[in-house]
Design brief:
187 residues, mainly beta, Jelly Rolls, 4-stranded antiparallel β-sheet
């Protein structure tokens, strides 16, 4: 359709904290994502309650159309299962560093304000969403310390001391159709 884009400000000095997941840095596993989702720098896209079971098995990816006020930034995605009682269970997450959007071997900075298509790999999983549950996709620019924070300057990440907030815009219209690809298994 002709939907308006969503915006948020990513401040690398105040990154979204990692809550569980597949990592070795913080406690891993299933955690309620509600505290992270209540921040102003996390966009949540939620389905209607499911009428019947939905099995998702295989690789998951997010196509994200976005702009940034920075020449380099990150975009993160997290797939969640929202239970009828409101508990938001993390399932899979992933990240794309904008400078590596086209190649991991060659850095390419962005032009601030120009829209780009990003692919975020959420890897593979197998999960059955139960009736009454909802599918949720969280979009942000950080998930720290699971992923290093991006200072948004374009300089080397591990030696940069300057941190610059970035205004991020996510599109989901007919010309820039952001979406998630779920491998649904017929039941």
């Amino acid at each position: 359709g002709n939907e308006r884009p969503d915006t948020f400000v990513y401040d690398p000095d105040d990154p979204v904290p990692t809550l569980g997941g597949n990592n070795l840095i913080t406690p891993p596993g299933v955690f309620d994502q509600t505290p992270a989702e209540q921040r102003g720098d996390v966009l949540c896209y939620t389905s209607e309650p499911l009428a019947k079971e939905l099995e998702v098995t295989g690789p998951i990816s997010v196509t994200l159309w976005a702009t940034s006020s920075a020449i380099d930034t990150d975009f993160t995605a997290k797939l969640c299962d929202v239970r009828p009682d409101g508990y938001v269970q993390n399932l899979q997450d992933g990240i794309i560093r904008a400078r590596y959007r086209n190649s991991l071997l060659e850095q390419e900075m962005m032009t601030p304000g120009q829209s780009y298509e990003f692919t975020i790999d959420l890897w593979a999983t197998s999960h059955v969403f139960k009736p009454g549950h909802r599918i949720r996709l969280d979009i942000s620019s950080s998930n720290f310390p699971h992923f290093d924070r991006n200072p948004n300057t374009g300089n080397p990440i591990h030696t940069e001391t300057e941190l610059v907030p970035a205004r991020q815009t996510v599109f989901h219209d007919v010309n820039r159709p952001s979406c998630i690809t779920l491998p649904v298994i017929p039941r």
